[in-house]
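Example (one chain per record):
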Amino acid sequence: MIENLPEAGHECAMTAPDAPAAATNTTERLFIALSLPEAVRTALLPLVEPIHGLTWTRPEQMHVTLRFLGDVRAEEAAAMADRLAQVQVAPFVLPMEGLGTFPPNRPPRVLWLGVGAGHPRLFQLRQRIDDAVLGAGIDLDVRTFHPHVTLARCTESVGPALAHWMHAHREFVGPSFRVESFDLYASELRPSGAVHTLKRRFPLATG
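Predicted structure:
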């Protein structure tokens, strides 16, 4: 999924051999995530209700973001993938419960389902992924990690219907799922919404 690309040529070079060098300047919008098993995605479908101002996430797009990377150059992505392949964490099981919205104490933009509830191995995995990304020379932001599945995105017109929905589903608990790998995705922004494409899967190495 990540290819090694040649280094860029001299700025003034115009000959054919330097043509591939332009590829090193290409970027992809990348993120690292846990993909949800099909059985888990199916179990979340009963939550979906027609609510004005709410756009539900398509089941095949549901995931738990571990790190959003933004635009990454091909050569950086290749170096990062090599390091991600060396991440070692024992497989673990994650619970899913707790509904909420982002941003807190403001009009909602995202409706989410909590994942992990502070699970130590999830945070260990995230830290080792961060180490791999930083080791490849890619900068990271310092946002607090709040593991979740984005269920829907909200517009300003969502109104009290969302609050009623959250009250009705306040006791919802999703199925637990076993984490045995993590994935690198490319995200393409389109008028109809973001489209995520799996670039590479990394099994959890345990030594």
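Caption: The two ends are 24 Å apart (CA to CA).
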